[in-house]
């Protein structure tokens, strides 16, 4: 699926992960609200070339092509306020960076980091499990490094490895 067509590879990207999947009706409303938000998103009165997509019924992804106009601190604040309003309206958490999303077969699930580490120790996830790197910051890295094996993610460094004697 090609998303953010017409956006430069260096476009800025923000990924917000929900603690639970969005229902079909929530996702429809989110698509409408996010489209309206991005169509009116400005930085210092300059219209941003921005778009939002919902991925896997769980992620809100924003992109801004800064070749048109650059984001500012105020414009980023506007997006964070939008996300906080979504959290309140849908009773979800979107700003918890300690919640790890991963694929269990083809279903995206999430768990707190400490629980995810236990799942690894129990063998329920492994170094090849696909995790979501929500720290990507450009469209190019989003397309190449958002869905990656656990052993290529920052999360892998958080798992205590047993020492072999």
Describe the structure.
- The longest helix has 18 residues, at 73-90.
- Strands 1-5-4 form a three-stranded antiparallel beta sheet. The protein has a two-stranded antiparallel ribbon with strand order 2-3.
- It starts with 11 loop residues before the first strand and ends in a 16-residue tail after the last strand.
- The chain is α+β, with helices and mostly antiparallel strands and 165 residues long.
- Strand 2 and strand 3 (46-47) form a beta hairpin.
- It is globular, with a radius of gyration of 17 Å.
- The protein is built from four helices and nine strands.
Radius of gyration: 17 Å
Tell me the series of helices and strands, N- to C-terminal: EHEEEEHEEHEHE
Specify the biggest β-sheet. 3 strands, antiparallel
Please mark out the parts with pLDDT under 50 across 5 or more consecutive residues, or reply none: none
Give the CA-CA distance, first to last residue: 47 Å
Tally of extended strands?
Answer: 9
Strand order of the largest sheet: 1-5-4
- Helix percent reads 25-40%
**Beta-strand share of residues:** 25-35%
Characterize the overall form: globular
Structural class based on helices, strands and sheet pairing: alpha+beta
Q: What's the mean pLDDT score?
A: 93
DSSP helical segment count: 4
């Amino acid at each position: 699926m090609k998303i953010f067509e017409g956006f430069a590879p260096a476009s800025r990207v923000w990924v917000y992960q929900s603690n639970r999947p969005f229902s079909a009706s929530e996702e429809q409303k989110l698509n409408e609200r996010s489209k309206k938000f991005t169509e009116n998103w400005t930085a210092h009165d300059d219209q941003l070339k921005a778009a939002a997509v919902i991925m896997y019924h769980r992620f809100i992804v924003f992109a801004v092509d800064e070749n048109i106009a650059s984001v500012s601190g105020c414009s980023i604040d506007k997006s964070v306020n939008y996300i906080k309003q979504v959290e309140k309206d849908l009773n979800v958490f979107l700003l918890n960076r300690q919640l790890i999303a991963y694929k269990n077969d083809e279903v995206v699930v999430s768990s707190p980091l400490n629980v995810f580490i236990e799942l690894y120790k129990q063998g329920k996830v492994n170094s090849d499990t696909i995790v979501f790197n929500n720290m990507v910051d450009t469209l190019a890295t989003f397309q190449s490094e958002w869905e990656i094996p656990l052993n290529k993610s920052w999360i892998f460094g958080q798992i205590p490895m047993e020492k072999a004697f």
